[in-house]
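Collaborator request, handled under Task 6.
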Amino acid sequence: MRETVLVTGVGGPAGKAGAIYFANKGYRVVGTDMREVESPATDFRFVPAARDPRFAPVLCAIAVQEKATLIVSTVTEELPIVARMRAALRERGVALCISDPPGVDVANDKLRTAEDLDRAGVAVPITFGAATPHDELAEALGFPLLSKPRFGRGGRGVVVHRGAGDLACASPEEVVWQEFLPGEEYDLNLFVERDGSVPAAVVLRKTGLKEGLVGNALGVERVERPDLAELGMRAVRSLGLEGPIDMDIRLATDGSPAVLEVNARLGANVLSAREVLDALDHAWRNGRCD
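Structure tokens returned to the collaborator:
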């Protein structure tokens, strides 16, 4: 009987990528999402939104009913909840390959990520919290500068502010203010073992961005940038992350790289970094995911 892998968020790019990979490997794939979507999964099951208190018990019940032996969570909002389900899932014979809750919590919070990496000596854009007065932002960062949701994903809500007038019209919601780095942007895909070793690190150059200067990648190409891989490995180790990791890195005017954000999950472009998926499969098959 084929083993079953449960992939969450199968309607999104990361979920689709995970489902395609495991289906092509011959596993039975059960995909979940909060809405009905087309996917390469063998079967599909609905789950509530991550913020719904029913989410955890429903996901656990699906895993048991479908006899899943691995859950691959690909939705940012779900990650803190799923990470805290590790013990309950282990008791039911279901493996997880995900960072521990403290690391997930920091990676999900863009302000804390920037602050923690900066303290660890890992390069990040100059970053301020939402309450920073606009005149201080303009003086410290100059224009253009960025605002982005403190808790968000997929480039949603990222805004480039080109002058003081733009700041006056900025959303009052909780945001992170950041220095705008004008150089090329890269997508670093990693797999990190629990002991901190990194068997897979693939750098993808973004060949276009959805919103011009920011946003999701319109395309990617593999490049050899060991400096970016090393920066990413320092970042995940300083945050205590493990499993599949997706990271955005951008170059400053002088060409030096800085970490824009860290996602403690598979990335949207991971099929172009198959080594990460292979490392995930190998870790699971050899009992290093629990």
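The cover message to the collaborator said: "The longest strand covers residues 200-209. The chain is about 30% helix and 25% strand. Please let us know whether this matches your experimental observations."
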